[in-house]
Amino acid sequence: MPERVDLMAEPDRNLALELVRATEAAAIRAVPFIGKGDKLAADGAAVDAMRAFLATVHFAGVVVIGEGEKDKAPMLFNGEHVGNGDGPQADIAVDPIDGTTMTAQGRQNALSMIAVSDRHTMLDASSVFYMEKLVTDSHGIGVCSLEQSIGDNIRELAKAKRKDVGDMVIAVLDRPRHQELIEEIRAAGAGTRLLLDGDVAGGINAARYETRIDICVGTGGSPEGVVTACAIKALGGFIQGRLAPKDDAERARGEAAGLDLERIYDADGLVSGNNTMFVATGVTDGGLVEGVRRKGPIIRTESIVLRSRSGTLRRIVSDHVAERWL
Q1: In the structure, what pLDDT confidence band is assigned to residue 203 with cuts at 50, 70 and 90?
Q2: Which of 8, 150, 176, 194 is the most exposed place for a label (fewest CB within 10 A)?
Q3: Is residue 219 predicted with pLDDT exceeding 90?
Q4: Going by C-beta distance under 8 Å and a sequence separation of 6 or more, which residues neighbour residue 299?
Q5: For residue 72, is pLDDT > 60?
Q6: What are the tens digits of pLDDT across the range 26-50?
Q7: Element (H, E) at 313
Q8: Any bridge partners for residue 102, and if so which?
Q9: The dihedral sign for the CA sequence 111, 276, 208, 313
Q10: For residue 215, what are the β-bridge partners?
């Protein structure tokens, strides 16, 4: 195995900006498909754009969490090597569009996103598709746990945040499997924020101090749990995940892959080390970033860049000459 290179041993401050170019390109290329009802066409355009830009980035990345298997996209599959092959070695998770259905329907909160960490640090949970997740800001550390009921988590976190339970807002994916969870949240006296899709954005907003969301909870994609952990490490928040195989066959695949199906993974279990980056660009408007906008001769994008080593969240608003994208 080649010696692992710490990203911080390289002048990696520009790496995040290079990655933003890839998410910006994917978001812009998806725009013609917003509201047109064809999620595969939207995703295919975004994948092609992201892959082209990633090929120019100064790093040696290996896709640990890819796009091809889930959405039948032709590129950016698990195990694919990306970047120009020079510079730091890294694990990379990509989702050219998190929210392909929302894009196709013209709904809010679709993102293009990439997460990066040092090589061999991301948990490969691809053999088990779903994961129970619990995300809060730093007040949840030592207070919240997947071993507790959602009611207890709400009450304990409210106490830690010095809030009334009635003022707590809990984000949950709006899925039939969460009906009982939603009822328990409301029975505890808290309010719900039902998400059509995109629990990565929901998790990030739960960890940010300036949003109304206090907790993001529920069962969603396990790859998205790993991606969220990369962002949470930069925000200093709290995350736990527990794999949730849907049947015996998937359980067997997970065990064969060496996954601990009983373990509650914390942030370090999902992404070891403290050297992660997360970048995202809005495709459509949402609570995290604005979507792509055409303003006369320019196309405007909004992105966020999170780096765990520096503990920073940066917003980047970019104007692109529209004629170069036609």
Answers
A1: very high
A2: 176
A3: yes
A4: 28, 31, 292, 293, 319, 320, 321, 322, 325
A5: no
A6: 999 999 999 999 999 999 999 999 9
A7: strand 312-321
A8: none
A9: negative
A10: 170
- 96's tokens: 């050219």
pLDDT averaged over every residue in the chain: 91
Longest dimension (CA), the chain: 55
pLDDT of 157 > 50? The answer is yes
On whether the CB atoms of residues 87 and 56 are closer than 8 A, the answer is no
Residue 12 in this model has a pLDDT that exceeds 60: no
Round to whole Å and give the CA distance between 162 and 156.
10
CA distances from 205 to 63, 218, 228 (A): 25, 15, 11
Nearest-angstrom CA–CA distance, 202 and 239: 12
For 153, the token pair is 């988590």
Identify residue 201 by its one-letter amino acid code. A
